[in-house]
Amino acid sequence: MNAPGEESQKMHKRRISLLLLFVTFSFLLSACGGTPAPASWPESLVVDKATLQKLTTDQAIADKQVDTLFVSSGSFVYAINAETGQEIGRYPEKAEGTNMYASAPALLNGSLYVGDYSSQFHSIDPTTRLQKWVKKDATGRFIASPVMIDDLILAPNADGHLYAYNSNGEVRWKFAASNGIWSTPVTDGKTVFISSMDRKLYAIDPGAEGKVLWTVDLGGSVVFSQVLGKDGNLYIGTLNNEIFSIASDSGKINWQVKTSGGVWSPVVVDNDKIFAGDQSGKVFALSSKDGSKIWETDAGSPVVGGLALTDKGLFVGTQNGDALCISVNGQKVWTQTVGGKLYATPVVSGNNVIFGVFEGDKSLAALDENGKLVWTFTPSK
Prior knowledge:
Elements: H1 4-29, E1 43-47, H2 49-53, H3 59-63, E2 68-73, E3 76-81, E4 87-91, E5 106-108, E6 111-115, E7 121-124, E8 131-135, E9 147-149, E10 152-156, E11 161-165, E12 171-176, E13 186-187, E14 192-195, E15 200-205, E16 211-217, E17 227-228, E18 233-238, E19 242-247, E20 253-258, E21 268-270, E22 273-277, E23 282-287, E24 293-298, E25 308-310, E26 313-317, E27 322-326, E28 332-337, E29 347-349, E30 352-356, E31 364-368, E32 373-377
Antiparallel strand pairs: 1-2, 2-3, 3-4, 5-6, 6-7, 7-8, 9-10, 10-11, 11-12, 13-14, 14-15, 15-16, 17-18, 18-19, 19-20, 21-22, 22-23, 23-24, 25-26, 26-27, 27-28, 29-30, 30-31, 31-32
């Protein structure tokens, strides 16, 4: 048992930690307006070698492809060898003033799509990293990744609009929420679901130029958090310390439960369980049927990024720079100190789990499934 003074110090440190996160979040919220945001943390997409080889008819280019990590970090989108951590290339070749990239790139129909902090939306060749086109139709920052439905690329923006681009970069239509959109849309192939900082979840019809089918008031802002389960239900966490299960066909709330802290990132749905982390530092499992708590463990520091699930367990990063592996039964398997702040959702490549690092001495750290450091990446100047 800790002495009273030790416990008081721990509580004081936790309050300071949460205050710092709130300050960081307050700065980031400026993306809904016009003032500059100070930084972005690395967000990543893994694309395997075979997929990249199919995207080019030039055999010389195809032969050079490896499992690749595309990372938005600062002024560039980097292409990194996922096995070694070596930089393959970057886009653009030179930094464009103070412009920054904050959202994970998305590989859609053979092109890499990513938005930036200067309201520009880019289409990039993933094998050569050359620009196909760039458009500036938005007025806010692109913070979330796009998705594709039919022939439309749907790109959410902090100006409160969801832009529907065709493959040539022309805006076919746009949907307007009443506040910034920070979350990546999800779709069942017919309907698009998008949540906003206006505390609402929308179901829209992409075939009818974004016509609203139904709306649900969530009572709290949604940052990056929404998932469509195989059961046809939407699972959404909010900054109001709640997780919802909502029927995607009607907008009916199946259940809603309180969490210990705000939920920033998407939950992980695995059969009849939901796994998530929150701003209080708790990692937990809920029943997807009724939201009842199955287990809960303390990560020791706020959890901002989402969880990565493999057959080895759940992988999570924390604000104090620790990477953890937690079994699907809630037991801590290992903890490895990476440093910095691990705000990004980790991604998996082969046997490695890759963490984006904010305010650290590196930008990425790859650990194997036993917690051993495999490689780190720090951009060259």
